[in-house]
Write a structure and sequence with these properties.
alpha+beta, 2 domains, four-stranded antiparallel beta sheet, four-stranded mixed beta sheet, 11 helices, globular, binds zinc ion
Length: 339
C-alpha cells in the first residue's frame, strides 16, 4: 500500500514546464506520456485583449497562443495576464508578481525565438503545461477569484504593466527562465536536474521557510513491497535482499544527489519522480512498515523560487532585484529590442 500525504498546489506543474523546452527532461521530470506534435488548423482567430494593453510595449507584440483547440492571436500583455493568473497566487506581493511577469514574458520570447510551441506547430506558445506555461482565461479567473475577481485581476494587470516589455537577458539573449514553487534554502543548479550547465541557473540562497510556505515539508510513506516494486520497474536488477536504502549523498544545495536503493544507485531527481515526491530535498528513513520520505519545498528547484520571490519582496526587494538574485549575471532588456 502506498500512502501519500501531500497536498497538491495548483502550482504543481512547474517541475515539468521548462525541461521539455530544452529537450533535456530527466526521467523524473518526464510526464507519463510524451506529448507528440499536433497539427493544428491554420485558421487564426482573435481572442479578447485586455484594455490595459493599449499603448504598452507588450501590447504591440503579437503572440499566437494555442487555446481551446485553436491557434488564437492576442498581444503579449493579455497573454501574460492569463499566465500570471495561472502560475502565481494573485495575493502575492506586487514586486513578486512583477518578477513572475518578467519570467513569464522572457519564457514566451525565448519560445518565439526558438521555434515556438513544440506541441502545436503554428503557435508561439500553448497552454499545455508539459510544453509551455499554464494559462487562465477570463472565465477561469472569475471562477478562481469569485467576488475578488476585480481586485485580483487589477493586481495582475499592474504587475504586467509595471514591467512593460522587460525581459531578462544573458549576453543579449532571452534567458531560459526556469522557476519553481519553493526551495529548501538554496536553489538547484540546472546541471543537477537537467544535466547541462547554464551560467545563470546556478544555486543561490532562497529565503522562504515553513512560516511562509504551505506544506513546506511533506511526507510520503511506502511499504517495503511497494518500494521494491517501484525500484524494480526502472531497475530490474534491484534486489530484495539488499539493504533498502544506503549511501545517501546530498549536493551543495541540500538536495539528494544519489542514494543506493535495493543495491542500485539512483539519482535524487529520479527518486523524486519514482515516488512522486514534491522535491528532491529529502530525508529518507526506514521503519517497521516501510520507507519514509520527508521532503522540503516544491518543484525542481531551478531558477526563481516563487515563494522566495515573495519573501524577498516582503523584505523590500523590487522585481529587478529579485530577477537579478535568482538569475545571476542577467540584465533587463526591452522586448522591442528582442522581437
Ligand atoms: Zn507549447
Amino acid at each position: 500500500m502506498k500512502r501519500m500525504i501531500f497536498i497538491s498546489l495548483t502550482a504543481a506543474l512547474f517541475s515539468v514546464v521548462f525541461p521539455i523546452v530544452l529537450g533535456i527532461l530527466t526521467p523524473a521530470e518526464r510526464p507519463k506520456e510524451e506529448p507528440s506534435p499536433v497539427e493544428i488548423t491554420p485558421e487564426i482567430s482573435v481572442v479578447y485583449t485586455s484594455p490595459e494593453a493599449q499603448g504598452t510595449e507588450d501590447g504591440e507584440v503579437e503572440v499566437v497562443v494555442f487555446i481551446d483547440g485553436k491557434a488564437q492571436k492576442t498581444d503579449m500583455h493579455s497573454y501574460l495576464v492569463g499566465v500570471l493568473a495561472a502560475e502565481m497566487p494573485a495575493s502575492f506581493e506586487l514586486e513578486a508578481l512583477k518578477a513572475q511577469a518578467v519570467a513569464a514574458r522572457t519564457f514566451a520570447v525565448y519560445k518565439m525565438k526558438n521555434g515556438g510551441s513544440e506541441r502545436y506547430q503554428n503557435a508561439d506558445v500553448c497552454t499545455d503545461i508539459t510544453c509551455c506555461q499554464a494559462y487562465c482565461d477570463e472565465n477561469e479567473m472569475r471562477e478562481k477569484w469569485g467576488a475578488e475577481f476585480e481586485s485580483m485581476l487589477g493586481r495582475i494587470e499592474s504587475a504586467v504593466k509595471g514591467t512593460d516589455g522587460d525581459c531578462s537577458v544573458y549576453e543579449g539573449e532571452p534567458i531560459f527562465a526556469a522557476f519553481h514553487s519553493s526551495s529548501c534554502g538554496k536553489t538547484e543548479t540546472c546541471a543537477a536536474v537537467w544535466g547541462g550547465e547554464i551560467p545563470y541557473l546556478i544555486s543561490v540562497d532562497s529565503p522562504e521557510n515553513g512560516d511562509s510556505v504551505p506544506n513546506y515539508t511533506s511526507r510520503v510513506s511506502v511499504s517495503y513491497d511497494e518500494f521494491l516494486k517501484t525500484v524494480k520497474e526502472r531497475y530490474p536488477e534491484a534486489e530484495s535482499g539488499a539493504e533498502w536504502v544506503r549511501d545517501t549523498v546530498n549536493d551543495e544545495s541540500g538536495r539528494l544527489k544519489s542514494a543506493v536503493l535495493c543495491g542500485v544507485e539512483v539519482s535524487g531527481t529520479e527518486i523524486r519522480g519514482m515516488f512522486s515526491l514534491r522535491s528532491a530535498a529529502m530525508e529518507i528513513s526506514c521503519d517497521e512498515y516501510g520507507v519514509n520520505f520527508v521532503t522540503t519545498g516544491y518543484g525542481h528547484g531551478v531558477g526563481m523560487s516563487q515563494y522566495g520571490a515573495n519573501t524577498l519582496a516582503e523584505r523590500g526587494f523590487v522585481y529587478s532585484d529579485i530577477i537579478a538574485w535568482y538569475y545571476p549575471g542577467t540584465e533587463l532588456m526591452s522586448i522591442k529590442d528582442l522581437t
